[in-house]
Amino acid sequence: MAAAPHPIPHLQQHLEQSPEQRRAADIIRLLMLYRPLLDAFVIDFFTDGLWAQLPPAWQPTLASATPVQLAGLLGGHGGPGAVWPLSLLAFAAAARALAFPRGCPGGSPHPPCQSSHLHPLLRRHVKPKKQHEILRLGKVGAPPNPLRPPNSPQPPNSPPSPQLLQRLSHATSCERVVDIGAGQGHLSRFLAFGLGLSVTAVESDGRLVGLAERFDQELLGELGKTRGLGHRRPPLRPLTPQAPQHVAGRLDPAAPWGEFLLPPNPPGPGPAARNPLRGPEGSEDGGQVLVTGLHACGDLSPALLCHFARSPAVAAMALVACCYMKLSTAPQPPGCPLGYPLSTSVAALPGHQLSYRAREAACHALEEYEVRLRGGSPHLRAHCYRAVLESLIRAADPSKRHLGLQPGRKAHALSFPQYAHLGLPLAGLDPAGVPLDSAAVGAMLEQQHKVVAFCTLGQLLAPVVETLILLDRLLYLREQGFHCALLPLFNPRFSPRNLVLVAARTPLATVLAGLDKDSEDGDSSKDRDSSSEDEDLGEG
C-alpha cells in the first residue's frame, strides 16, 4: 500500500494554527485586497477621486442604491430591489464572516434615560450609556433556570446571581479590584458600594480624581440620610458604606509590575501614588487582585495586558478598549513598547500593519450608521459637506490638508453655504473669497449618494479591523499561557465598543457560562438583549 501523501508545507502550517490564528490571517488577506478602500479618508472623496478607485463593476449599482438598500448590504439583511454584483456580495459576506459577532442589538435604539435596575444613588451623575455598561460589566442579575423556557422573563423575585466581575471575584477568590482609567469613578462606586468589593480606582487626571472623591462623599452623605429615615420600600440591593480608594497616577508600560505607576499629568500636590498591585501599606502580602478597564483608551489597553502578563498579583482582568487610532505602531524609538501588534502570531503575518485611518475606522459605530441609512437621516449629508469643504480649502491653499475642522455638531441641519461660512474661517480662509454657489460645488453636492455608498463600504470593514486588533491581544495572552476569551457584553447600539476581553490564570468556563443569555438589564423581556446567535472566541 502506498504511503499517505504528506501535506504541503503551507497547508500543514495552516492545520497547526488555532482558529484564532487562522481568523487573523484571513482578516489580513482580506484587508490587503481592499487596502485602498480601508486607508482612504472620506474627506478626500473629491480631491483624490475616490469613487473612480472602486471596482468598475460596483460603481453603477452603488450609485443607484437607496439608503435602505445600502443598510441591507451593511447588515446582511438584503434590500428591496437591490441586485448587487457577485464580487461586492462576496466582499460584504467575507467582512461579516470574519468580524467578531457583536451581539444582537434588539430593543430600543437608545438606552433608557435612567436604569431602574441600578440603585438611585448610583445613577447620579452617570449618563444612560454608562449605566448600561456598568450593569452589564458588574451587575447582579437573575440566574439561569434550566426548567424555565429560554425566552420567558425571569420571575420578579428571583435570587441574584453574580455577573462578569463578580463571577471573576468568586472564581479567583479575589475581593480586591483595581479599576484603571477610572475617570469620575462611576464603575468603581458601583463595585464598592453596590457589590461590596474593595476597589482601588486609578486615574491619570487629578481633576477627575477629585471629582470622583466628591461624588463618593455625596453618596456616603445621602446613604446616611437614607438609613436614618428608613425606606418605604426596600431598594434593589442594599448599598455597602465602603467607598473606593482613589489614586492619581499613570501607567508606565515599560516598568516592572511592582512599580508601574507614574505621577499624574499634571502632577498633583499629594504624595506619590502607591502601587495598588501590592498589599496594604505597600507591602507585598501575596494577595491577588482583579483588574478592569472600561474603555481603556489607546495604549492604556495593551499596557494593562502587559502588566497582567508580568504581574503575579493580578488573578484576572476584564478589559474594554477604545480609541484604537491612538495605539503606538512601528516604528517606535528603542525601549518604547508597541500597542499593536502585541502577539508574535500577528507580527509574523505579512501585511499585518494597520494605518492610522484603518485604526480610526475600527472605532466607528456600524449599528448607528445602519439605523441612519434605514431612516434616511439628515446626518448622512455631513460626510459630503466635509468632502466638498476639503475640496474648496485645497483649491484655495494646497498646503492645508486634513485640518481637523469642527464646524459644529449640528452641521447636518445647515445648508452647505451656512456650513461653509462656519468651516472656512477655521481654515484661515475668508468665505467671501470662495465661490460657494459655483456649478462645481453644486455638482459635488449632487453626489452625496455616492459619498454615502463609499462610507457604507468603509463601515463594512470597520468591525473586521477591530476584530484583528482584539485577536492580536487575545493571541498575545494565549502565548503567555493565560486563559482568555472575547465576548460581546454591551448592546452595540448603546455602546459601539462592546467587546470585552476576559483573561485569567485559571479556566474561565464557569465564569463565562450563560453570560450571553442574560437580559441586558435584568428582567424586562421587552428590553432583552437577545444573544442567542452570539459566539465567543473560546476560552483556552
From TrEMBL:
One of its GO terms (molecular function) is rRNA (adenine-N6,N6-)-dimethyltransferase activity. This is rRNAD protein. InterPro entries: Methyltranfer_dom (IPR025714), METTL25 (IPR052220), rRNA_Ade_Mease_Trfase_CS (IPR020596), SAM-dependent_MTases_sf (IPR029063). Signal peptide: none annotated. Residues 164-329 form the Methyltransferase domain. It holds the Pfam family Methyltransf_32. PROSITE patterns: RRNA_A_DIMETH. The lineage of its organism: Eukaryota, Metazoa, Chordata, Craniata, Vertebrata. Residues 271-280 have a biased composition (Low complexity). Residues 143-162 have a biased composition (Pro residues). Residues 139-165, 226-246, 260-285, 514-540 are annotated as: Disordered. CDD domains: AdoMet_MTases (cd02440).
